[in-house]
Amino acid sequence: MPGRFFLTDPMAALADTLGATTAVVGNEPARHNIAPGQKIVVFDGHLSRMRWGIVPVGRVNARGRPVMEQIINARSETVFDKSAFDGVGRAVIPVNGWYEWTGERRKKTAWRIAAKEGGFLYYAAITDVWTAPGGMMVPQVAAVTCAPNKDVAPIHHRMGVLLEREDIGTWMGNDLDKAKALMVPWPDGCLDISPAGDVDWNGP
Hints:
mainly beta; hypothetical protein yedk fold; 13 strands
């Protein structure tokens, strides 16, 4: 959907692929367990870090107080229609893959999902800047999801919108209709799904 990401290839390789620099992100070590709420690498024309999870600006509860929940994934079917996402930017979250879980609680199986040919996957994402209490400005990001392809369907009812490298500019461009046209499932047969094995879910 995703539940967790992993980004293990060197930042230099990512920067070279995207035609960017590592000036902001530096030489980030391999991360095998990136959880919601953590800072992650994002590309919006340059590489930077944002918090994974959007606090919907303008939403209030029944008492008129701001909703503090974090949205880590936004549905492609409604992301550009909900007032909570008015004015958001568009970017990509580059990863080497993600994890999903199946099974009953305490007996769940973790699955590792990556491109069959290896390398990077580019998640379509939306971005925003949240003004936290005290005035701190927090750049934030959420992945955009769609229906699963045949690879992912056996383990989850949603998957991230994955972009080809050459479509990143269209996703981040000014033509919203062209960007919306990219919000479709990744082609069948292009993902490798295997048991995650020994991942330290409390580690990096």
